[in-house]
Specification:
Blueprint: H1 2-6, E1 22-27, H2 32-47, E2 51-56, H3 60-72, E3 79-82, H4 86-92, H5 100-105, H6 108-111, H7 114-120, E4 121-122, E5 125-126, E6 128-135, E7 138-142, H8 143-148, H9 158-170, E8 174-177, H10 182-197, H11 199-207, H12 211-214, H13 217-230, H14 242-250, E9 254-259, H15 263-269, E10 278-282, E11 290-299, H16 307-318, H17 320-330, H18 346-361, E12 364-366, H19 376-390, H20 396-410
Parallel strand pairs: 1-2, 1-3, 8-9, 11-12
Antiparallel strand pairs: 3-11, 4-5, 6-11, 7-9, 7-10
């Protein structure tokens, strides 16, 4: 068990010594746009005279596996990027630092939405620093492709979305760009569930795990919409990663994609301008809702001589100016609600305004697809059923019952 293995870290003979002024960050920011955002952090740390030891690992699953090997081997990084319940999983092993004193001194409790704080704390103690608040229910449209098919405005309803996709298909375009990983299909389905049945239903089904909601005709309708959407994907979608799908929209080979706001960094990297080269609006039917995930930098329990550098890293991440510049580059909203938006572009202003409004209205909710509602076992059951529907391996009419059974088996 990892808990038993982690107890050996402090005395492990192969533990790797670290310099006191070194910050080693394990992360999954490997795309072009993500690298540009990471440069903002590197520059800030350089001002603190810290040595940045960059440890990029592509893919969340590989990062988890490699990080576990590091910890067991005594090679303890300063911090690692995590998401959702992963922070709690590591906190349960007793290997994360307690940042509560710093959090109190800088009043993080007032600045960070409570819905996000839940995953940055464990047993009331701050164990990680949120760096980017992403929302997943965005619709990205290539304007040249839209003009080609006579689409004058973004679809305002699910019916209008299907009309646009059909027009793109008739024009020889890929209607819907999407990658082949289950988490991408589940990301799409989160928006579809809310658009089809509303946020209250989404909460009953995925927060409360209400069996009646999971098995309901409403859930069947959502799966029917997902199945219909899958028919507009590129035939080779299974070979694509998320950024490949985004590139299809950027280059005009595809009309649109449903993606989180991390896609903005790719558009910016390609020198594309919002409202000129592309449009980005909320998925139709989710305009007042923000389904979020976040990048959380969990801090490990490091030796006393390394704690000063770790504290500087945490303070740098929560700095208002850094939050503005980093998230403007990455495409996310700041995790602090008190960050001014004066330097943001139109998309950034809207993203932050949406988060602030949702935070006030109670419509800021974690994304089931990204581990911000349920633990990994339930999330994986969700992935499996959603992917099977998208791949036409199971009919929508049977999927609701199958999903309820799969969740019941692991909860």
């Amino acid at each position: 068990m990892l808990e038993e293995e982690a107890l050996l870290v402090r005395s492990h003979p192969q533990a790797r010594p670290r310099m006191a002024d070194e910050v080693r960050l394990v992360h999954w920011w490997v795309s072009g746009g993500e690298a540009a955002a990471l440069d903002v952090l590197k520059q800030n740390l350089a001002k603190e005279d810290l040595v940045f030891n960059d440890t990029p690992i592509a893919g969340g699953d590989k990062l988890k596996a490699d990080l576990k090997a590091m910890i067991i081997g005594g090679d303890i990084p300063t911090a690692a990027v995590m998401s959702g319940y992963d922070t709690w999983n590591w906190a349960q092993q007793g290997v994360l630092a307690d940042l509560s004193t710093l959090a109190a001194a800088e009043d993080w409790n007032s600045a960070v939405p409570a819905a996000l704080q839940k995953f940055c704390k464990y047993n009331g103690k701050w164990i990680g620093v949120p760096v980017a608040l992403h929302s997943i229910n965005w619709l990205w449209i290539n304007t040249a492709a839209a003009e080609k098919i006579g689409l004058d405005a973004p679809p305002a309803s699910m019916d209008a979305l299907f009309v646009a996709l059909e027009q793109a298909k008739a024009a020889g375009l890929v209607p819907l760009a999407i990658g082949g990983q289950p988490w991408l299909m589940a990301t799409l389905f989160d928006s579809v569930v809310v658009a089809t049945n509303g946020l209250d239903f989404y909460k009953r089904a995925f927060v409360d795990l209400d069996d009646a909601a999971l098995k309901s005709s409403d859930m069947i309708r959502a799966f029917q919409n997902l199945s219909r959407l899958s028919s507009y994907a590129d035939p080779g979608y299974s070979r694509l990663n998320w950024n490949d799908a985004t590139d299809m929209v950027i280059t005009g080979g595809a009309l649109l994609e449903i993606s989180g706001d991390w896609a903005k960094a790719e558009y910016r990297s390609a020198k594309k301008k919002a409202d000129v080269d592309y449009l980005c609006v909320r998925f139709p039917g989710t305009e007042d809702d923000v389904l979020f995930n976040a990048d959380i930098i969990a801090m490990f329990d490091v030796e006393p001589d390394r704690q000063s550098a770790q504290t500087k890293l945490a303070k740098s991440i929560m700095d208002r100016a850094f939050q503005a510049s980093f998230n403007d580059a990455k495409g996310a909203a700041p995790v602090r609600m008190d960050v001014p938006d004066a330097t943001f572009d139109a998309f950034g202003k809207k993203a932050l305004a949406d988060v602030r409004a949702a935070n006030s209205n109670g419509t800021l909710i974690g994304a089931m697809s990204h581990g911000y509602i349920q633990p990994t076992g339930i999330q994986q059951a969700y992935f499996d059923v959603v992917a099977r529907v998208f791949r036409s391996e199971i009919r929508p009419e049977a999927a609701a019952e199958t999903l309820a059974e799969a969740i019941a088996a692991v909860k």
